[in-house]
Amino acid sequence: MKKLIITCTLVSAFGIASYAQASNNATLQSGTSMQAAPGLAPGGDRVPFNQLTPEQKEQRQAAIAERQAKYYENQYHLNAMQYKGIYDACLEYVKKQQAFRDNGKQPNLDENLKMGEERDAKFKEIMSEDQFTQYKSTQHLPQRPNRQAATAPTSK
């Protein structure tokens, strides 16, 4: 009985897996042309950033900055001039982040905070006072761990 249940389970699992692959292949081979996003292979697989051409890197950075700027536009009701300024600030921020990664490291907390403060200073120049106040109220700042508490000896 156990062998029968295990066999049925395996057959069902393989059947589901092959069905999913067949529908994915049919979608790719059908008449619809799938335009890959910057940095994505036609199947939707992400290409590692270091394997992209300089044009693809710029496209990916621009796409990230555009997505962020559109979010801010919808969230804070930006006009066209504000949107352009916010987009430029986001693009600069994305490029700074990528410059760290190109050198083989991740920005640490202090570096991230500094870049965020620079971006926020630009946002403050671009946004109205009410928009910027709303923006700051929705930001989640990373919390630094209390290092003294972690290293302080416990007393009994």
Describe the structure.
The chain is an all-alpha fold and 156 residues long. It has a domain at 53-138. It is 69% helix and 0% strand. It contains 6 helices and no strands. Helix 2 (54-76) packs across helix 3 and helix 3 packs antiparallel against helix 4. The protein is elongated. Mean pLDDT is 77; it is low at 23-35.
Brief rundown of the structure:
The chain has 156 residues and is mainly alpha-helical. Helices cover 69% and strands 0% of the residues. Residues 23-35 have low confidence and may be disordered.
Secondary-structure element order, N to C? HHHHHH
Described by strand count, sense and barrel closure, the largest sheet is: none
How many β-strand runs? 0
For the termini, the CA-CA separation is 61 Å
Given helix and strand content, the structural type is: mainly alpha
The proportion of residues in beta strands is under 5%
Shape: elongated
Give the count of helical stretches.
6
The helix content, as a percent range, equals 55-70%
- Rg is 24 Å
What's the average pLDDT? Answer: 77
Low confidence ranges: 23-35
